[in-house]
Design a protein that fits this description.
- α4 crosses α5.
- The protein is built from 18 helices and 6 strands.
- It folds into 2 domains: 9-14 and 92-188 and 201-341, Fumarase C, Chain A, domain 2 (Up-down Bundle); 350-410, Ribonucleotide Reductase Protein R1, domain 1.
- The strands form 3 sheets. It has a two-stranded antiparallel ribbon. A two-stranded parallel sheet has the order 3-4. It has a two-stranded antiparallel sheet with strand order 5-6.
- The longest helix is centred in the N-terminal third of the chain and has 37 residues, at 93-129.
- The radius of gyration is 31 Å and the shape is elongated.
- 62% of the residues lie in helices and 5% in strands.
Length: 429
């Protein structure tokens, strides 16, 4: 059921192979740009186009140089002749590394958007299905007034749409390349080289850089992932709360043969939504690290790069996973309508307190007097297990002002769904 997560796409984006494939494509794109300028002969560029790197050589050289880029370059030039000298012409490591990272982040964002779109569609389906499914609304954990389960899900759907918009904005923020040399002056790699390379790769040239693409862009991306994860956590937390035994209005899907506890056979725990909440915390932690990576010494230090080897793939992988997981939960969510109705009756009509107060105001009482009458009967309902509707209907102060038919009409749950259609229309559902 939920064990679908064999999907390799996001892990492939952050694989060593994809990373070094992108390094090679950038190196070749730079050589193509130099060839257009006449620096690299036609015969050499033809051979460079066929270049490849050797992982075995890379690993051996890395042990000695302890530098990814020099090891990569040597593992590539090992398969070339004299034309290999043109690789990395005018570049510094970050020209290649940062531009490749931008390509990976763009790929990752596209996969994340695909998952979010699936979640958005599932939420929309559930929102329409339960548009008029009455349930109690809760504030501070206490019964308030009736809502519908569809409205609750529609709220999640609307927020998920905003999450996709934020992700799109973050994708644009990181979809930039940088081919400007050791400190960003273009002294060894002219601007037209950068423009040519970025055009080949489908990126925008960074308007200005030093040795690196500025990390506010990456912080924008990771904090966006953290905010999306917060939305998923919000939905998961609500589902967990509604699955509590005392409430039991919804339940995660639970398949035949599944177990919830090693010791208590009766258990059906909300472990999927709990997992979502836990991984959302992980992504939030990475957001803090991404913001701390913005401040670097001078034109660059490498305090950011070690952390980025973890926070970029981990954040993308975790968000991809929990988005997919929540989508499966929503699609298989069990909704107990009868339990929702039973829970609405737990407070024996107290949900009608505001409507009663407003009716008394309309009948001429001051708000203070109306509030006092309704609160007095509400407290009797709480403390003496009475029925609010019966207490109000027998209170002479109310009877003198309100007819029996008006009270009967007042105590109608359907009154709380009167404007659901308007809300759905306003939201675009």
């Amino acid at each position: 059921m939920i064990e679908r997560y064999s999907r390799p796409y996001m892990s492939a984006v952050w694989s060593d192979k994809n990373k070094y494939d992108k390094w090679l494509s950038i190196e070749i794109a730079v050589c193509e740009a130099w060839a257009i300028k006449g620096l690299i002969p036609d015969e050499d560029i033809r051979k460079i186009r066929e270049a490849s790197y050797d992982f075995d050589i890379f690993r051996e050289v890395l042990k000695r140089t302890k530098h990814d880029m020099t090891a990569f370059l040597q593992s590539t030039t090992a398969g070339l002749g004299r034309e290999g000298r043109w690789l990395h012409q005018g570049l510094t490591t970050s020209d290649v590394w940062d531009t490749a990272t931008s390509l990976q982040l763009v790929e990752a964002s596209e996969l994340l958007d695909e998952e979010l779109m699936g979640l958005e569609n599932s939420l929309k389906e559930k929102a329409l299905m339960h548009k008029n499914t009455l349930m109690i609304g809760r504030t501070h954990g206490v019964h308030a007034e009736p809502v519908t389960f569809g409205l609750k899900v529609a709220l999640w759907w609307d927020e998920t749409k905003r999450a996709r918009k934020r992700l799109s904005d973050a994708k644009k923020s990181v979809a930039v390349g940088k081919i400007s040399g050791p400190v960003g002056t273009h002294a060894t790699a002219p601007p037209d080289i950068e423009a040519s390379v970025c055009a080949q790769l489908g990126l925008e040239p960074a308007p200005i850089s030093n040795q690196v693409i500025q990390r506010d862009r990456h912080a924008h991306f990771v904090t966006t992932l953290a905010l999306i994860a917060a939305t998923l956590e919000k939905i998961a937390t609500e589902i967990r709360g509604l699955q509590r035994t005392e409430i039991r209005e919804v339940e995660e899907p639970f398949s035949k043969g599944q177990t919830g506890s090693s010791s208590m056979p009766h258990k059906r725990n909300p472990e999927l939504t709990e997992r979502i909440c836990g991984l959302a915390r992980l992504i939030r932690g990475h957001a803090v690290t991404s913001m701390e990576n913005v401040a670097l010494w001078g034109e660059r230090d490498i305090s950011h790069s070690s952390a980025e080897r973890l926070i970029f793939p981990d954040s993308c992988l975790a968000l991809d996973y929990i988005t997919n997981l929540l989508n499966e939960v929503i699609k298989g969510l069990v909704v107990h309508k009868e339990r929702m109705l039973a829970n609405m009756e737990l407070t024996k009509g107290l949900v009608f307190s505001q409507k009663t107060m407003l009716l008394l105001v309309e009948k001429g009482l001051s708000r203070e007097s109306a509030y006092e009458i309704v609160q007095e009967n509400s407290m009797k309902t709480w403390d003496e297990s009475g029925d609010f509707r019966s207490l109000i209907s027998s209170d002479q102060r109310v009877v003198d002002l309100v007819t029996a038919s008006e009270l009967e009409s007042l105590f109608d749950y359907e009154k709380y769904t009167e404007f659901v259609d308007d809300i759905y229309k306003k939201a675009g559902l």
